[in-house]
Please model this.
Amino acid sequence: MGNERCWNPEIERADRAALEAVQLEGLRATVRRALRTPFYRERLTGAGLTSADDLRTLADARHIPETTKADLRVAYPEGLLAVPPEQVVRVHTSSGTTGTPTVIHHTRRDLDAWTELVARCIVATGAGPADVFQNMMTYGLFTGGLGLHYGAERVGLMVIPSAAGNTTRQLRLMRDFHTTVVHATPSYMLHVAHKMPSEGVAPGDLFLRKAYLGGEPYSETTRRKIEAFYGIDVYNSYGLSEMNGPGVAFECVCKDGMHIWEDAFLIEMRRPDGSPAPAGEEAELVMTTLQREATPILRYRTGDITRLLPGPCPCGRTHRRIARMTGRCDDMLILNGVNVYPSQIEQVLMRLPEAGTNWQILIEKAGALDRATIKIEVLPGVFTGEVKALEALKARISEQVRSETLVRAAVELHEPGVLPAFELKAKRVTDLRPKE
Ligand code: ADP
Ligand code: ZN
Model:
């Protein structure tokens, strides 16, 4: 696989020394720009960093203060703008999963650099100009729509900007235009699968070969279920609006971890106490933009938990790979003292042969204790069984969750299509406990 086609072979296969030289230059340029913003000028000078020349090696990045989502909100709307307003050509925001959205400005060159990264991702999955690309992500301030759109056009795919929602129309477009590649959240891809029988469409009626799924966490088992149902390859796509959006990290044809574009981003793995995590350990991903002009961001705490994968990738790309995200730091639930990420529960549930694809967890206070209820859709055949068998299944699911995650939860079984479906990001957790 060493000869896989690259969009930009020179940089995608650059050796470590060359990559690090590019990174150091990018880091200095970024700090220089950041010093022009009111927010970072105060931050950096406060930390004794008054000139980009103070950074002699990449390791010196450790002296730069970290940036949090809360900082970006304080800087709203223009406290991070490092160029004169007339150079800004577009603005995007995050989708606001965890609060007020954050704002990112882009210059023409920023958009161009972002498009280049997305083009690399698309080519890394083996797609090309002969493909028809249906972009089922929301267009607008959310970055999933326009981000992939321009990258796909640059590579030369035929783009159908169908945007999210309206499943009947999505399926018609897929059939009429012979769509081969789609981009969506895993939740929406599952929703489309559920709707297909009632729309009279079978996977064999479609021409799909690949799906780019991201924007929210999902398990390896969910990937495999989607692949088996549609008969396609699913590629994991990771991005966040603060670092452009999609195009930050993407799986190549090896489908074993996502290459993160290191000429565009300096990455660090952070332990909860702020110290650097050794390679292979699960930790929070921290990122610094190395190319962005309008909104430079230094040592941004993404809140996303992952680990670096060891060794080179057989595809020949040298940019390091990150594992599927375990979750966000702020997603972690504490249930009667047990720490658990929703993704860990999902992993247990999706392995059950009776499981459908949609599930939720409800958390309430019952006296001093937390009470958790898992609601899960099961396959249609399950409900034809006896009541006793259903009770046994609930007990088995509950026990499986307890033995693998230590969480004690009651289980409710539901028919397929009963729990709310999601066109963008799924909301799995409803936490009704009073806030402290
Ligand atoms: P918000 O932070 O409001 O959701 P974004 O739309 O920028 O705004 O979403 C970025 C976040 O989505 C990431 O920080 C991460 O938590 C999540 N995410 C994106 N892609 C993936 C993926 N492939 N796997 C897991 N989580 C993802
Ligand atoms: Zn690879």
In short: Residues 1-329 form a domain with the Rossmann fold fold (CATH 3.40.50.12780). The longest strand covers residues 355-366. The longest helix spans residues 16-34. The pocket of zinc ion (ligand 2) is lined by residues 252, 254, 259, 313, 315, 317 (CB under 6 Å).
